[in-house]
Known about the structure:
Helix content: 25-40%
CATH architecture: 4-Layer Sandwich
Distance between the termini: 43 Å
Number of helices: 9
Number of domains: 1
Low-confidence stretches: 1-9, 121-125
CATH superfamily: Ribonuclease Z/Hydroxyacylglutathione hydrolase-like
Shape: globular
CATH class: Alpha Beta
Order of helices and strands: EEEEHEHEHHHEEEEEHEHHH
Largest sheet: 7 strands, mixed
CATH topology: Metallo-beta-lactamase, Chain A
Strand content: 15-25%
Amino acid sequence: xxxxxxxxxxxxxxxxxxxxxxxxxxxxxxxxxxxxxxxxxxxxxxxxxxxxxxxxxxxxxxxxxxxxxxxxxxxxxxxxxxxxxxxxxxxxxxxxxxxxxxxxxxxxxxxxxxxxxxxxxxxxxxxxxxxxxxxxxxxxxxxxxxxxxxxxxxxxxxxxxxxxxxxxxxxxxxxxxxxxxxxxxxxxxxxxxxxxxxxxxxxxxxxxxxxxxxxxxxxxxxxxxxxxxxxxxxxxxxxxxxxxxxxxxxxxxxxxxxxxxxxxxxxxxxxxxxxxxxxxxxxxxxxxxxxxxxxxxxxxxxxxxxxxxx
Length: 310
C-alpha cells in the first residue's frame, strides 16, 4: 500500500438505530457500528471488507475525530478492518481478544479466511464481496507489522467516557472467551457482538454454552431498547429468549445423541437445524453444511469430555 487507507474511495450505508448510533447489518461479516458523541466518535467492530472499512472510517471521521475503536471479539470478521483504521483513535481490547487477535489456529488461518471474502465467488462488487478491495489488500508481512491491535487492554469490565456518552464494556464470555458487550446507557443500546445472531444461524464453534447462557442473562439486566447483534437485524431485548432457545436446543439435541450412544459421526450426520434457525448470515450461504457439522461436532466433543468446556 502506498497511500493512506483513509484516502481511498468507497461508500457504505449506515443504518440509524438512534440519532447517534449507526450500524450496517447488510454486509458480509459482522455488523460494524459507530456512536457519535459531543467529543468525537466511538467505533464498535470494523468491517471485514477493505473498501467498506475505508468508507466507514471516512464517514465516522466526517462526524468528528475517532476516539476509540472497540472490538467485541477476536473473530476475524470483527477485527480485520482495524488495519484500515490505523491512526484513528485508540484500540480497546479485552485481554481475551488481545491474546487471540489474528492468531492462526489449527482449524483456521484468519488472514487467509478474510481474503476469501474479497474477490467473492463471482466478484460482483456487491456488499457480499469486495473485488476493489484486492487493491487495498496488504501482504502478510506488511499487515503483521501493524494490524492495529489493542493499546488499552483490560480484564473484567471497563467504563469509558467520551463527551456526553458512557461506554460500559462488559465481559460476556461464551461465544468467545474475551467476548464483550458495549452498553451505551444514554442511547439505550447495547452492542453484543456474536452473543446474539439475529435471524440467522448461530456459530457455536469452540464456545462455552453455559457461559453464553449466563451472558444472555447479564444482558437482560440492562435497561435498553435496542440490541445491535453481531449478525443480523437490530432487535429488541425480547430476542434474548430466541437466542437462548437456539443454544439450549442445540445442546439438548447433542446431549440426547450422547445419551442414546450415537457416535460422533452419527451425531454430525443426524442433528441439523438448517430448517429451524434460519439462513446463514449474508454472503456465507455456502457454509451452511459446515456450520451444522461444526456445531454438532464441537458440542459432542465437549459433552463427551474430548475437550473441556460445555
